[in-house]
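Question (not urgent): is this output format expected?
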Amino acid sequence: MATRGFSVRLYFPDGDPQGLKVVERPGWTGQGVAFPRLLLAIARRREEVNRTGVYVLWEREDGVGFPRIYIGQSDNVMTRLLSHDSQKDFWTDAAAFTSKDDHFNSAHARFIESELIRIAKARARSDLQNRNEPSVPSISEADRADAYRYLDDMLTCLEVLGLTAFRSLTTESSGDLVQDELFYLNARGITATARVESANEFVVLKDSQAHRTPVPSFLERPEFRGEVARRRHLIEERVFAGEGEHYVLSRDYVFSSPSAATAALTGRSPSPYQEWKTKDGRTLGQVIRGDDQ
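Got this back:
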């Protein structure tokens, strides 16, 4: 079944697309304020972040490993963010979610915080910095339903803001041509299977293979420094694991592009749109162009 479209409103009060953003959804009582850490003083003046709410801190992705994130809640979100500014160095961005009315209380915030931590752990797409898992507060059935509705909209807004830590790897297919396909790689003696998860996510599946030895030019050329660092990280984290002739992926892994995936697996200059093919032999390039449709 094709998923339905939706709308999210982004407002830039300072006129800077890279600056502070206010994010809302039609009919939603919630409201989010997202900003780079360097604009903390500007965010501090916003009324929305001086209320009861939930927040997420994260570091901007550098293409190597998963971003670190931290999830919290407070009766005054900004007070807690100012504390984190002096105690946590890793974060580059923050998003605080509060409410336009008085119906969002501390119990709602604690419940949503616990759910966000649970989801982040289950998705395994981030380096979660929360060391303690909060207990789930006891709230009424009606309040729980309200909290889940709020959470659904909040998760949508977080993804629009570029944070994919809570996104499922098994999201329902939108019926898109590319997302309906599996792609196969056979190069340098290794085999791998992948799928397109979204416009910015290429998922290589568990048990795919990766070559143990990069070609010399891959290690020497400056344009591949990021890919070399990514391979090193995947080996250190035991995503590339095993004692055989090739590494084997210990779990599904999300790459930012087919090119990044191909370079990491083969250890050489990638040609992803020619090398990844469907079961019937169409290249990834042919599929994304819609050839032979």
